[in-house]
Amino acid sequence: MRLxxxxxxxxxxxxxxxSVTHTVKLDGSGDFTAIQAALDASAQGDTVLVYPGRYxxxxxxxxxxxxxxxxxxxxxxxxxxxxxxxxxxVLSPCIRVIQxxxxxxxxxxxxxxxxxxxxxxxxxFSSGSVAYVTNCKVHGNTASSGGGINVIGASVSLSGxxxxxxxxxxxxxxxxxxxxxxxxxxxxxxxxNRCSIYNNRSGSGQDIYMQHALSDLNVYLDTFxxxxxxxxxxxxxxxxxxxxxxxxxxxxxxxxxxxxxLYVSPxxxxxxxxxxxxxxxxxxxxxIYRIAADSLSQNTVRLLPGTYSRTANDQVFPIALKSWVxxxxxxxxxxxVVGEPHPLIPTGYGNVDATFMTYLEPVLWLSDLTITTASTxxxxxxxxxxxxxxxxxxxxxxxVNSNYVASVLLxxxxxxxxxxxxxxxxxxxxxxxGLVDVPGIISGRISNCTFRNATSTFISGSxxxxxxxxxxxxxxxxxxNCEFSxxxxxxxxxxxxxxxxVQFPQQHNNFSFQNCLFSxxxxxxxxMHVGSSNYPNVSFTNxxxxxxxxxxxxxxxxxxxxxxxxxFDNDTPYQIKINPMGGNETTTLxxxxxxxxxxxxxxxxxxxxxxxxxxxxxxxxxLFAGSPDIHDPLYYSLSDSSPCVDTGTPDILGLDLxxxxxxxxxxxxxxxxxxxxxxxxxxxxxxxxxxxLPVPNEIMSVYPNPFRHFATIRVDMDSVARGKxxxxxxxxxxxxxxxxxxxxxxxxxxxxxxxxxxxxxxxxGNVCANGIYVLGLSLENKLIQSKRVTLLK
Length: 793
Description:
By secondary structure, the chain is mainly beta.
């Protein structure tokens, strides 16, 4: 048998005429019982012939010209592939070819249960190596990147290889290729004996991730996960700015994506079809993987109430987001996603425990849920590595434990605008990350968002710490009704909040802040910096900067800077500083109808710039209303004796003002706008879609909704009385959570004008959890009408 095998191999593989064949058999009847022992005894040109069995090994090839084969190479019987198994024991890669080992032939094996905390769980080809892999199966392996195969600066030819059911945390669940210094990778797919790559999972590039590409690549496959791959399944990144492409020739699709909404439940089962709540699947990742969507036909992955975690219900993290797919929870209080690290892949710098992840996905949606993390020191709630836009609504992100990255880290592009609505990011102590970090470029609108309660403990005498909130804006980026509060930087030369810009020739960035509160932030290097080159337009309208501390300034800006109807009252040497850009870059700072502590003396000037402190502005004490807790935003609302009441600009045309203030009250009240983000003694704003006079059957209305501090409930008392035929004696509003539990009852005075409020507390006065609540209007113990309201504390 050995002689026949040798003769056949001599015909099949060059250079074997004078080689030695070492046999490996588990029963001891061969030359060796372990593959590694046979390899260690081999010289260049030798062959290691492995007989069927399950070999619990982590094989390393360290000699040039080695052929590692099973009986499949001699018989062409594919059954030997399944019966000749290298089992990595979840310890290390199943097989590894070390650096610069060439003419390596591997044929006829199954590689499974490999593990690599780096790249390459099943097979790893190191820099400078040259290998030929034929008729092998690579499945059930795990790695940080390249769950199945990793090609790092190596040349690999694949023929008849099946790569399936592998997992990687970051990039390329099936196949990951990259170059290293001095070694460019090369990979060839056989167009006749085709490979198959399918059903792998990863944070991005489910099946394939290749970077540093130097040319177009033809990928000939028998089977791929889908018939028409998108960047969700396969990513090909050229080197530099080249426009190289990966061209697929696919004969079969492993599965058809489902053109329908899908349901996910913590109590579901991934064997279900997911088409109804009763047949919900369990894994969020699986739901996104199965669903179909494009720009013309969006579908939604609907997350039913419950907590989703790796520990509780085997969630797969990161959850890879797919373009045009809407991922929607059931509410902030009812849908909680707890990101947890992979138990076998350690955390640390360079390995982010992301809860949601995306890479090169053009447009994404995520809404109506809470995200936090557990058991990690390097977490990120949402991690977007390169390009795309992301739309967030009704999201709470808290206690993420992001020491090296931010709770929200996004590399976005400027092709699509992003819209964030009702997003809260809070409660973070970090040694190097932050709350929000958008070092890419973002344009669009950020509305009703809160960034608060975070401390950066990073301290350095030579470098500055990353801001807790950092955006790099492009084109038009607006912040409306946002709160930035209780952000603390311990480093002596760092800023808490930064909005920088991306510059292109002949382009001016437009950055605007409206009805925003910046309060109780502490940063010795300056609290906030806004600006860019090319003379950006920067505006602050009806904003309040108060209670901030530091040894430098509260706000530094440059360009065409307009501050209107705003308040600056902070414990910093300067309230405002002009950023000295140098060269031909100058700044014009206009202050109109604003209250600036210390007046023009509170502004740090720079030569060559212009400051217009108009007579309409004042330097008085704003006389805030105050409250027992200085960290309560309403502490900085105006008292009845404030000089900022009814002293804003009398002509608001052209300011493009929102019709409501920070808490949802009328922005202009008593005939004239106030300074700052709060309008004094105003009533809730009512839009044209929700008129003041109730429509038929609209007895109760709630404003604002969602709300942060107070929900004003307007009840049409005349309609209530008419509905009873006589004035009722018992009327109340009961507040219920979505579990049907009563939270609070609010008695109604039927002789009133019909305005009542709920402050988001229960009967004991404790603040309720964020989420959706039901307000039930009852009359004589009979439910008349109910309304849903969302609490965003």
